[in-house]
C-alpha cells in the first residue's frame, strides 16, 4: 500500500486523461454487463452505475490506496475504481470461478478487500455504520487512513444513516459520507419521499457535519471536493458529507426500463454526461481528439478481452458452496 | 485470587484479561464506560483501560454493531455490548444480513472477529421487552457462533475463546445468573467454543440445558435423585459450534433425553438437537424425547405468570418422572 494519494493535480493532462480512461472502462463494463444480461449470461439482477462514473473515479483519485471504501448494490464502478478488473467483475456477474468473490457474491456484492474496497452491501444504508467502524479502527491504530461510504439518496431515509452520522460526528472520526443523488429512490423520485430538498447535504448540519453539494458528473469537481473533505478528516477535524448530483443512464435494476422519468429530464442529464464533460476539459487543455480516442480504444479492448475471458472461465466447483462461512475456510457448525 | 467470583464480575474480568493481552481488543456500548454498564458487567474496564479502549455510545444499536463490524474488518477485535438481548432486534440487520454473510459472499476475502455481548433471558421481572431468551434468533443464521455460559469460570474461559475467535460470536450473558457465584477461573483459562460439559453424571436420563437452565436442571436432578432417578446433566455451553457428540455419548448411557430450554418451544434450539438425535442416535433411545421449554407467549411481568411460562424445577422434575415411567 502506498501512503500517498494517487494523483497530484488534475490540471495535469496526463492525469485527467487517466481519469477519463478509467471512466471509459467503467462505462464499457456496465454496457457489457447489460448486454450479457440480455443474452442470458448474467442471472439475477444488476444495478448499473453508467452515468455515475465520475463519483467513483473522482473520489478514488483523491484517496490513498489504503483508505477504506464501502459501497452499495450499485457498486460496480466503485469496485473498478478501487482496483478490481473488468474481467474479475464480469466473471463474478457471469457466475464464474474466477469472479471477484468466487461467484458467491454476484453483482450486488463486488468486493476487493486486497484494495481495501471492503464490500458492496445490498441492504440499503447498512454499510454506513461499517465505514464509521473502519474509520474508528484507523484512528485507534493511528494509521491516518480514512473510510468512505458511497450510498444512494434512498439510503438517507434509513435509520442507520442517521445513527452513523451522529456516531461519526460525536467520535470525530475520519469518515466521508458520499451520497450519489441520482434523483430516484429505486422507482420513486426522492423528492416525493423526503422532507428536505437535498436528502444528504441538508441533513448533515443536524449532526454538526458540513454537508457539501457537488456536480457528481464532473470528475474534477468530485476529486477536488473529496480531496478537501479527506484532508479535513485526516487532520482530525471529523467526518464530512458530500452530496454528488448525478443520474443513472439505466433504470434502477434490470427489471426497470425507467419509463417514469420525464423525457426532457433524461435528455438534459444525458447531455451532462460525465465522459463528455471530461472530454470537454481535455479539449480545453489542448489534448488532441486522437489522444482521447486512443484512450477509448484501450478501454474498449480491455473490456472486450474481459468479456471473452469471463465467458471462457470455468464455473465454480459445487463443493465451494460449503466453504468460507468460517475463518478456517469451512462451514462446519458442529464439533 | 478470591475464593469465589460472581458471574457479573466474571464478565468484566474475562474482557479485562483479553484487553491486557491484546491491544486490538476494544469495547463499545451504551453506558459501558465510567458507569460500568447497567448490569455492572463492565465495571472497572474504563478505569483500567481508559476512554481510548472503552467507548460509550449513543443509544444506536445499528451504529454500535455496524461500527464493530467495520472495526473488526480492519484490524481490531471489538467487543460490542447490546444492553438487553431483546434489543438485538434493533440491529438485527447486522446479525442476520451483514456480519455472518460478508465472509461468505466475498468468497472468503473478509474476516469479522467481533463479539456482540448481551444480557439475555428472564427471571428478573422486566416484562416482555426486556426478558426474552433470544439465543434462537441467532441460531437461525448461518455464520454466527453462539456462546451462553452458565458459570463464572465459563464466562471467563468462553469470553477468552470468543474474543480470540476469528469468527463473529454472539455472547449471551444471562441476567438471572449475574449474581450467582462460583470458583474463579485460573490464569489463561480458555474454554474452547463448542465443548459441552457433563456437570453431573447419571445413568437414567440426560438433561441438556443452557445458561440459566443449567442450575435449574442441576436442582431438578437433585430432587429426582431423592426419588431414585439418576439424571445426567449436560451444559451445552454453545449452540454454534454445537457439541451434539457429548449429548449422544450421554444418551448411550442413559437412553432418555430431556432438553431444558428457556426459549419458546416453537423454534427452540432443543428442536435442532432432538432432530440430530433422531437422525444419528435413534437406536440409543428407549423412550420418546421431551422438551421442557417456554410457552409460546410473550414473557409476562408478574412472577407467578412468568413461572407459568418458563421452565421451573417442578416442570423439569415432572417431565423426567413421566419419561422415566415410559
UniProtKB/TrEMBL annotation, chain A:
* Transmembrane domains' residue ranges: none
This protein's cofactor list reads: thiamine diphosphate
Give an example GO molecular function: pyruvate dehydrogenase (acetyl-transferring) activity
Origin, by domain of life? Bacteria
The answer, when asked if Metal-binding is one of the entry's keywords, is no
Q: Report the residue ranges that make up the Dehydrogenase E1 component domain in this protein.
A: 22-318
Q: Does the keyword Chaperone apply?
A: no
Instruction: Set out the biological process GO terms recorded for this chain's protein.
Output: pyruvate decarboxylation to acetyl-CoA
Q: Name one Pfam family in it.
A: E1_dh
Name of the featured protein: Thiamine pyrophosphate-dependent dehydrogenase E1 component subunit alpha
Q: Which species is the source of this protein?
A: Streptomyces liliiviolaceus
From TrEMBL, chain B:
What InterPro entries would the database entry show? THDP-binding, Transketo_C/PFOR_II, Transketolase-like_Pyr-bd, Transketolase_C
Q: Name one Pfam family in it.
A: Transket_pyr
Q: Which GO terms describe its molecular function?
A: magnesium ion binding; oxidoreductase activity
Q: Which UniProt keywords apply?
A: Oxidoreductase, Thiamine pyrophosphate
Q: Does the record carry Oxidoreductase as a key word?
A: yes
**Cofactors demanded by this protein:** thiamine diphosphate
* TM regions (residue ranges): none
Give start and end of each Transketolase-like pyrimidine-binding domain. 5-180
PANTHER family in the record: PYRUVATE DEHYDROGENASE E1 COMPONENT BETA SUBUNIT, PYRUVATE DEHYDROGENASE E1 COMPONENT SUBUNIT BETA
Protein name in the entry = Alpha-ketoacid dehydrogenase subunit beta
Organism expressing this protein natively: Streptomyces liliiviolaceus
Amino acid at each position: 500500500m502506498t501512503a500517498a494519494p494517487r494523483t497530484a493535480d488534475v490540471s495535469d493532462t496526463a492525469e485527467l486523461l487517466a481519469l477519463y480512461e478509467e471512466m471509459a472502462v467503467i462505462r464499457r463494463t456496465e454496457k457489457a454487463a447489460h448486454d450479457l444480461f440480455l443474452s442470458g449470461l448474467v442471472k439475477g439482477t444488476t444495478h448499473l452505475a453508467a452515468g455515475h462514473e465520475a463519483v467513483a473515479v473522482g473520489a478514488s483519485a483523491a484517496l490513498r490506496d489504503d483508505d477504506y471504501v464501502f459501497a452499495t448494490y450499485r457498486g460496480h464502478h466503485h469496485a473498478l475504481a478501487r482496483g478490481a478488473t473488468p474481467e474479475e467483475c464480469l466473471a463474478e456477474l457471469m457466475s464464474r470461478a474466477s469472479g471477484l468473490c468466487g461467484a458467491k457474491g454476484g453483482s450486488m456484492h463486488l468486493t476487493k478487500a486486497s484494495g481495501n474496497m471492503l464490500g458492496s452491501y445490498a441492504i440499503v444504508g447498512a454499510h454506513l455504520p461499517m465505514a464509521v467502524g473502519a474509520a474508528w479502527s484507523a484512528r485507534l491504530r493511528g494509521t491516518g487512513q480514512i473510510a468512505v461510504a458511497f450510498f444512494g439518496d434512498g439510503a438517507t431515509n434509513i435509520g442507520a444513516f442517521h445513527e452513523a452520522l451522529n456516531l461519526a460526528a460525536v467520535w470525530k472520526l475520519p469518515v466521508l459520507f458520499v451520497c450519489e443523488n441520482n434523483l430516484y429512490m429505486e422507482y420513486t423520485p426522492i423528492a416525493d419521499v423526503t422532507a428536505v430538498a437535498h436528502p444528504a447535504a441538508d441533513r448533515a448540519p443536524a449532526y454538526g457535519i458540513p454537508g457539501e453539494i457537488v456536480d457528481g458528473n464532473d470528475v474534477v469537481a468530485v476529486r477536488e471536493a473529496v480531496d478537501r473533505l479527506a484532508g479535513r478528516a485526516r487532520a482530525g477535524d471529523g467526518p464530512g458529507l458530500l452530496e454528488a448530483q448525478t443520474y443513472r443512464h439505466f433504470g434502477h435494476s434490470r427489471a426497470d426500463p425507467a419509463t417514469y422519468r420525464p423525457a426532457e429530464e433524461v435528455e438534459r442529464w444525458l447531455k451532462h454526461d460525465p465522459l463528455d464533460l471530461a472530454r470537454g476539459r481535455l479539449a480545453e487543455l489542448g489534448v488532441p481528439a486522437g489522444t482521447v480516442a486512443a484512450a477509448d480504444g484501450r478501454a474498449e479492448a480491455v473490456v472486450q478481452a474481459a468479456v471473452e475471458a469471463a465467458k471462457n472461465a470455468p464455473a465454480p466447483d459445487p463443493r465451494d458452496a460449503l466453504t468460507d462461512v468460517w475463518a478456517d475456510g469451512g462451514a462446519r457448525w458442529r464439533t | 485470587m478470591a475464593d469465589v467470583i460472581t458471574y457479573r464480575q466474571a464478565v468484566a474480568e474475562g474482557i479485562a484479561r483479553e484487553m491486557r493481552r491484546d491491544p486490538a481488543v476494544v469495547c463499545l456500548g451504551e453506558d459501558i464506560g465510567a458507569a460500568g454498564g447497567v448490569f455492572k458487567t463492565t465495571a472497572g474496564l474504563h478505569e483500567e483501560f481508559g476512554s481510548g479502549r472503552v467507548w460509550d455510545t449513543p443509544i444506536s444499536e445499528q451504529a454500535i454493531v455496524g461500527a464493530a463490524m467495520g472495526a473488526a474488518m480492519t484490524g481490531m477485535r471489538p467487543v460490542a455490548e447490546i444492553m438487553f438481548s431483546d434489543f438485538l432486534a434493533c440491529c438485527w440487520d447486522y446479525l442476520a444480513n451483514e456480519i455472518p454473510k460478508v465472509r461468505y459472499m466475498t468468497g472468503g476475502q473478509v474476516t469479522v472477529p467481533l463479539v456482540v455481548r448481551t444480557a439475555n433471558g428472564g427471571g428478573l421481572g422486566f416484562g416482555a421487552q426486556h426478558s426474552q431468551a433470544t439465543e434462537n434468533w441467532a441460531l437461525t443464521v448461518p455464520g454466527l457462533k453462539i456462546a451462553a455460559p452458565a458459570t463464572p469460570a465459563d464466562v471467563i474461559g468462553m469470553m477468552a475463546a470468543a474474543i480470540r475467535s476469528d469468527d463473529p460470536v454472539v455472547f449471551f450473558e444471562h441476567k438471572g445468573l449475574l449474581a450467582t457465584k462460583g470458583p474463579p477461573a485460573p490464569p489463561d483459562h480458555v474454554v474452547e467454543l463448542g465443548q459441552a460439559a457433563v456437570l453431573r453424571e447419571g445413568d437414567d436420563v440426560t438433561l441438556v440445558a443452557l445458561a440459566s437452565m443449567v442450575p435449574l436442571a442441576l436442582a431438578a436432578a437433585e430432587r429426582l435423585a431423592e426419588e431414585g432417578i439418576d439424571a445426567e446433566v449436560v451444559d451445552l455451553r454453545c449452540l454454534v459450534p454445537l457439541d451434539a457428540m457429548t449429548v449422544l455419548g450421554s444418551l448411550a448411557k442413559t437412553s432418555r433425553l430431556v432438553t431444558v430450554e428457556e426459549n419458546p418451544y416453537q423454534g427452540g434450539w432443543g428442536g435442532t438437537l432432538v432432530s440430530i438425535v433422531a437422525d444419528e442416535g435413534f437406536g440409543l433411545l428407549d423412550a420418546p424425547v421431551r422438551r421442557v421449554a417456554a410457552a409460546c407467549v410473550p414473557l409476562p411481568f408478574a412472577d407467578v405468570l412468568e413461572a407459568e411460562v418458563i421452565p421451573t424445577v417442578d416442570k423439569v422434575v415432572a417431565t423426567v418422572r413421566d419419561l422415566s415411567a415410559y
